[in-house]
Amino acid sequence: xxxxxxxxxxxxxxxxxxxxxxxxxxxxxxxxxxxxxxxxxxxxxxxxxxxxxxxxxxxxxxxxxxxxxxxxxxxxxxxxxxxxxxxxxxxxxxxxxxxxxxxxxxxxxxxxxxxxxxxxxxxxxxxxxxxxxxxxxxxxxxxxxxxxxxxxxxxxxxxxxxxxxxxxxxxxxxxxxxxxxxxxxxxxxxxxxxxxxxxxxxxxxxxxxxxxxxxxxxxxxxxxxxxxxxxxxxxxxxxxxxxxxxxxxxxxxxxxxxxxxxxxxxxxxxxxxxxxxxxxxxxxx
Length: 285
Ligand SMILES: C[S@@+](CC[C@H](N)C(=O)[O-])C[C@H]1O[C@@H](n2cnc3c(N)ncnc32)[C@H](O)[C@@H]1O
Known about the structure:
alpha/beta
């Protein structure tokens, strides 16, 4: 178990909220959020495919770890009623502005909350969708988040959509080779240090498919797959230019997609609660 505290996690994301440099425009403006959204879904086109925003029209969504609120806005725009939480005040402040500038404030309720103790802030109630993209691997005790969801926020028809980092990813191999010179026994420390745009994440766990099935005990996994390799050269990317790095500059998009489906960084899972007489997670993936 990681010894980091939730205060360290909050302070890390307050220093630099996720995706906050996706646009050089003045923060909090409409143009800023438009560029943040465009860049996010350009670099991570699998997110709309995974979230299926349009399917949640008229439904209730609990989003855990909303960051700047980019996915939040898309759920709300599609007609969902969203309850969004995050542990980072700075992220929430921007997320509130984000829904505000697009006139969606009446469809979203934001809460400052620790996902490991959601019931302290959100009263138990079933949601149609519980969605958490790139979050629970950054909290010291991810299994507590799943327990909170399972016991308080789902009913048999609810859907859970989760993204966590994949253990056998191309990015993990690159971190190990470039930053750790192959020191695999330092893997956890190296990944935490280098997993994000900002170095030094207090917590970053990695999951294999087997570990994910274990984590989701009590849920039936309907889909589980890996997506996303970042193919751009970082120096140019920081200046908002997209130049592919080797070997992706030589590979066709079809081959790149195939490599992503094997060595992608994002392990994306869609699951439903098991019926009470079937309490084990599905082992078909
Ligand atoms: C990598 S960002 C992802 C943000 C957003 N889901 C997105 O895709 O842009 C991780 C987010 O999780 C939040 N977070 C981490 N641990 C949390 C916890 N225990 N409770 C609530 N939010 C948490 C962080 O503050 C941060 O905003």
